[in-house]
Please model this.
Amino acid sequence: MRLNYITTQDLKQVSGGWSGLSFSLFCQLSQSPDLNVRYVGPVNPPISKTAKLGSKLWRLSGGRGRFYAFSEERLARHRAGVAALRAEADYDLFLGVTPWVRCRFDSPYGAYLDACFRTYFNNNLKTEEFSPRDIRRIELAEKEWLERADQVFWASAWSRDEAIRHYGL
Model:
């Protein structure tokens, strides 16, 4: 089976956390005699400094910022980056979900996910500082992507249950 392993992480720069997980998962998959694993990465386009500054200024002036890390422009650049590097495959396995929500190709796909966007957002950011419309846009795209996935491998039952609760999966 030909598998594209798609990640934002550079397999040459490994530490703990997400980069260590990415490297370990790639190595484990590559050891399977039944898989021909192709590394597709790192696909991690830069964040627009203008979008970041604009969001910050809105928040400082009492408004609500946009979640610029997942702007439609950057999501399109993620898709273009994957399209440029990926090979014809039987399966695309993505590490994470939110950067890839605009990635749709002909092969079946799945993801390894530690937590959905809403869970990450609730646990790490002040929701009142961001545009509800922008957050909803990201959530709806992630929900649709997850619903179409052939498999989703969750880091924990808790994170799976959170996504089910937030997105009605």
Q: What stands out?
A: The beta strands are 2-6, 36-40, 91-95, 109-113, 151-154.
